[in-house]
Amino acid sequence: MRSTLLLISAFCCLVSASPINFGMPNDFPSFKNLVPKTSTKPFADSCGSPVQPAATTPLPPVTSGLSLYMIAVGRGTQNYTCADSTATSVPVAIGALASLYNATCIAGANPTIFNEIPAAAVKVPLPNIPQSLVPVGHHYFSNATTPTFDLGSLGFLHAKKTASVPGSAASNVAWLKLEHETQGEIGNIAEIYRLNTAGGSPPTNCSGMASAFEVQYAAEYWFYS
After folding, report:
1. Using one digit for the tens of pLDDT, what is the confidence trace for 165-179?
2. Splitting the chain (225 residues) into consecutive groups of 10 residues, what average pLDDT does each group show?
């Protein structure tokens, strides 16, 4: 318990009062002009050898020939709707909105601490921006089923879910494997893993819920190119 509180305190020390815009995607500032087009060399090349956290039920492995490009911490909301506010209705997922922060070298230097960040980050109220994590873009859904990642000059892609396993607790959204859906987009990112999720799961039914609501979440996103 003490170590969890210390980690939360440490994460809070990283944040400032600068707001993140969690409006619709066209209101969300693009990072295309913030990330310098200096190199296509993966961040992971200079950050040790990070290893994915193990799931109770493993996801399919990374496709042969791909290598780790970047690891990001995602912090935002999973979004849902309810047809009515009765126990006979169940929440329907309509997407997510999240800011993404480059944490590749943190994962390489101290994976134990890194893997505790999502559970700590989800407890930090929005909006906040971690000053010691580099913002690299954002994640949203372009429609109800298409996750989109805008990483500025590092990559822009629409993805599709190819595998899913349960999170570590009922309150945590699933761990996922995603693949690049559309050819010809910016960057060479081909696969993304959403791992080590914290929060994000809706209640089991819509009793007492609004017609649309958000559930706070955080997760690790592992990008491969």
Report:
1. 999 999 999 999 999
2. 44 36 34 36 74 91 94 95 97 95 90 93 73 81 92 89 96 97 75 97 97 97 94
Label residues 146-179 b or e (16+ Cβ within 10 Å = b): ebbbbbbbbbbbbbebeeeeebeeebbbbbbbbb
* Residue whose entry in the numeric block shows the structure tokens 């200096």: 38
- Quick one: tokens of 111? 């994976």
pTM of the model: 0.82
* Dist. CA 153–CA 34, nearest whole Å: 9
Pairing of strands 92-102, 129-130: unpaired
Residues with Cβ within 8 Å of 63's Cβ and at least 6 positions away in sequence, in order, are 190, 191, 224
Contact at 8 Å (CB) between 90 and 108?
Answer: no
Give the whole-angstrom CA distance, residue 185 versus residue 140.
16
